[in-house]
TrEMBL record:
GO CC annotations, alphabetized: cytosol
Protein family membership: Belongs to the UPF0045 family.
Gene3D superfamilies the record matches: 3.30.70.930
UniProt cross-references to Pfam families, sorted A to Z: Thiamine_BP
Span of domain Thiamine-binding protein: 4-97
N-terminal signal peptide: none
Protein name, entry field: Thiamine-binding protein domain-containing protein
Organism field: Priestia taiwanensis
Domain of life: Bacteria
Listed InterPro entries: MTH1187/YkoF-like (IPR029756), Thiamine_BP (IPR002767), UPF0045_domain (IPR051614)
Amino acid sequence: MPIADITIIPVGTESPSVSSYVAKIHHVLKKHEDRVKYQLTPMNTLIEGELPVLFEIIQELHEVPFEKGAKRVATNIRIDDRRDKVSTMEGKLKAVQAKIDAE
């Protein structure tokens, strides 16, 4: 299953803090939790789901800073789409952990 790593950066805000934007983005993700899995990290957000759904939700997330008054938004997207086998966020972490444990 495709996994997207997204970072949404509002440009020209009144404060260097972006936590209010991140919180709003996660409210949007919460309403889609029946369609995707997501995980907040200190630097980005990971979303797992069908590719067309990911693109739809990413577009909605990109709009969040504009809705909060930002005049410019930079969104970075990286997609891991493995098609030779089923891949999930949990599965990827378990594979690495197994290798760490084996050392």
